[in-house]
Each structure stands twice: as C-alpha cells, then as structure tokens.
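Much of what follows relies on a compact textual record of a protein's fold. The record below shows the convention in full:
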Amino acid sequence: MGVGILSGTKVLVGDGDTKSILKQRGYGEEVEGQHVISIIEAVYLLEQGALEIMSGGEKLSVEDLIGAGGKAEQHFYNKYLVYRDLRNRGLLVRSGLKFGSDFRIYERGGKLGEAHSTKLVHVVPEEYTCSFPELSRAIRLAGNVNKQMIYAIVDEESDITYYLVDRVKL
C-alpha cells in the first residue's frame, strides 16, 4: 500500500511504484515531478485500501478526508458518492471542471491520452432546481465538445439517479 501526503486540496504521492500504478489506472496527474491526486480520488483509494493518507505525521481516516473535502468544495460528499459509484462501475472518472461539470467519464477500457471522454456528469442534490436556459447551456456545451450531459441526482438516502439530458432535433 502506497502513501500520500495531504497538501491543501490535493494529495501528493512520491513512491515510484505507487505513482506508476495510479497513473496506469487513471488517477491524478504529474505536476512538477510530483504525482498529484484530488481529495475525491484519495478518499476512494483510501476506502479501497489502496492508499494511506498522511497529514502532519498522522494517518487520516476516510471521515477525515471527507471533512477536508467538504471544507474545500460544496456538496463534496454527494460528489464523492457519485465518483465512487462510477468508479465501481468500471468507468474512468476525471475532473470535468474545464467543461463546466463535476466529472467527465470515459467508457470501460478507455485510457488517458488514447481515448476521449464521452460524457459529462453534473452532481446535484435532490432539491436542485434550474432554469431552462441554464439546462440548455449545459446541453449545448456538452454537444459542442462531443459529449453527452448526465445529471446525477443524490437524494436524502444517498441514492443516486442518473438522467441523460440531450437535445432533440425534429
């Protein structure tokens, strides 16, 4: 099991073997010689028993990391639930920030640098509301980058319902 160090809103992984495995499985990215993973990825890897996370010489628990993520990002726990569900389904999940969504996903077997993501996922709580223009902008953006738009709705019981929202041309 590898070790990561919590540094702000990221986790740094220095061990060569661990870095190689994480890179191969689509976690994180290389930044100035360091392998950096997000807190969401770190929570998942910690929960799976694949990585230990340290901060200030102390070993962190899943709850500690979820707390750190919650301080850094609104609706972090809901996003984590969706991230975990998608990863458990065998999908490669990456940040969708540059596309205005929470995640972008690749089909099973897709490799970074070789395949392109096919869907954008936006995570919202059950009570979420939006206007038609807002919904239209999200769908149009997804279409402009050749992706489908999925809304992942997380209810009070932490159940997730996925809605594929698309444009219909008549």
Notes: The chain has a mean pLDDT of 91. DSSP finds five helices and eleven strands in the chain.
